[in-house]
Design goal:
The protein is α/β, with parallel strands linked by helices and 398 residues long. Helices cover 43% and strands 15% of the residues. The protein starts with a strand and ends in a 16-residue tail after the last helix. Bound molecules: NADPH dihydro-nicotinamide-adenine-dinucleotide phosphate (NDP). The site of NADPH dihydro-nicotinamide-adenine-dinucleotide phosphate has 30 residues, from helix 1, helix 5 and helix 8.
Length: 398
């Protein structure tokens, strides 16, 4: 019986994880659950799972009156404490954004097995995460579907045998749109993803392809491959999640329907493949073919190229890219800037940063805060203010 802490339990990945655990209560026990603001949703989960304690990332609002009578902790420090909890075997980090970095470092520093969906902690934490993994003796398992695919194809083989990896991208809702039409995009359009149902931030990142740039950096950190050996190809149906080409000319790919439950199962059960009675059928060549591919339209989606360049340049750049992108997404969702202005906010912010190495988590926090401040000013400066007001968040279940 493994005890699991689920950070971001009320989100899309958190909910998918709990759906998986509901089918495997003989193997997993929920030890800790966290949310940020949505205390009622967390309360309902706590009533169902009766964990050791729960954490809210923010202070409880007026009217906070939970039905679950167990222990409620609050604040970022409590999130890190949740990641270190004694008796928890596995921490699943499904927080969104830079807020995930502290808990990632805490879990690895405490020697935990960390199932990591929060790609932003790898992008902003880079070498700090690698160091915490080495020094803390923990274990890092990717949950992001493309990286889970690479991990599954490698299955313990050394990365020295790998010639290149290819991450697939759905291309997002505007894959085929001519560039001028992107001026018409409203938040509701961008929140409608063709193949995946996810939280709002990653859904916007998928529409701009910033998500794929974050994933290239994530792959570089996770697998230690140089950027020149990480490719991206658009694969509109999201059936192949990644391809690993070995030096002997063989390529292995991982295929499956676009459901986060598959990489979550892998991370929870690793190294075992758990038998799962899920309804979703596996890959069927007749139904799921043909498998088609296209190049990324880098000229139409400039955040892809800017993000990969930030990763390659290193130092402050990936931290600033991530922070500015978070601000740009918030500004777009709240109607302060248009879709085509997202890239400008990020690229103008990057101009204020350098490749100076990040030496500590405080240093990363400082660069993150400075980049947010520059990006906010930039968003205020370019906001047309005529975009649609914020819509409800996208569905958080698949
Ligand atoms: P959601 O927005 O659906 O959920 C985020 C979760 O984190 C919620 O529980 C939210 O709490 C909590 N949270 C948000 N901000 C904070 C904060 N500042 N401090 C503490 N808790 C916070 O996100 P997703 O599940 O879509 O994504 C989670 C991570 O997984 C992201 O890094 C994403 O890139 C990655 N990922 C997601 C995939 C998906 O299919 N969704 C696929 C691959 C990767 P509350 O509900 O209270 O707001």
């Amino acid at each position: 019986m493994k005890r699991v802490a689920i950070l971001g339990a009320t989100g899309s990945v958190g909910e998918a994880t709990l759906r998986v655990i509901r089918r495997h209560t003989d193997r997993f026990r929920v030890g800790v659950l966290t949310a940020n603001r949505r205390w009622e949703a967390l309360d309902a989960l706590a009533l169902e799972w009766d964990p050791e304690f729960v954490v809210l990332g923010t202070e409880p609002p007026d009217g906070f009156a939970p039905r679950w009578s167990g222990e409620w902790r609050t604040g970022p420090g409590a999130l890190e404490g949740a990641a270190r909890t004694r008796g928890v075997d596995l921490v699943l980090n499904a927080l969104v954004g830079f807020a995930g970095l502290g808990p990632t470092l805490a879990a690895l520093g405490a020697g935990k097995r960390l199932a990591l969906a929060n790609k932003e902690s790898l992008v902003a934490g880079g070498k700090l995460v690698v160091r915490a993994l080495r020094e803390g003796g923990g274990e890092l398992l990717p949950v992001d579907s493309e990286h889970s695919a690479v991990h599954q194809c490698l299955d313990g083989r050394p990365v020295s045998e790998v010639a290149r990896i290819t991450l697939t991208a759905s291309g997002g809702p505007f894959r085929t749109w001519p560039a001028p039409r992107l001026a018409e995009v409203r938040p509701a359009d961008a929140l409608s993803h063709p193949t995946w149902s996810m939280g709002s931030k990653i859904t916007i990142d998928s529409a701009t392809l910033a998500n794929k740039a974050l994933e290239v950096i994530e792959a570089h950190i996770l697998f230690g491959l140089p950027y020149e050996r990480i490719d991206v190809v658009v694969h509109p149906t999201s059936i192949i999640h990644s391809v690993v080409e070995f030096h002997d000319g063989s390529s292995l790919a991982q295929l499956g329907r676009p459901s986060m439950e598959i990489p979550i199962l892998w991370a929870l059960g690793y190294p075992e493949r758990l038998e799962d009675p899920r309804v979703e059928p596996g890959f069927d060549p007749l139904r799921d073919g043909p498998l088609e591919f296209e190049p990324v339209r880098e000229d139409v989606f400039p955040l892809f190229r800017a993000g990969v360049a930030a990763g390659k340049a290193g130092g402050e750049f990936p931290v600033a890219f991530n922070a500015a992108n978070e601000v740009a997404v918030e500004s777009f969702l709240s109607g302060r800037i248009g879709f085509q202005e997202l890239a400008g906010v990020v690229i103008r912010t990057l101009e204020q940063f350098s490749s100076r190495p990040i030496s500590s988590v405080e240093d990363a926090r400082h660069v993150d805060a400075r980049a947010r401040s520059v990006a906010r000013k930039s968003a205020r400066g370019m906001g047309s203010g005529d975009a649609e007001p914020r819509t409800e968040e996208s569905e958080t279940t698949e």
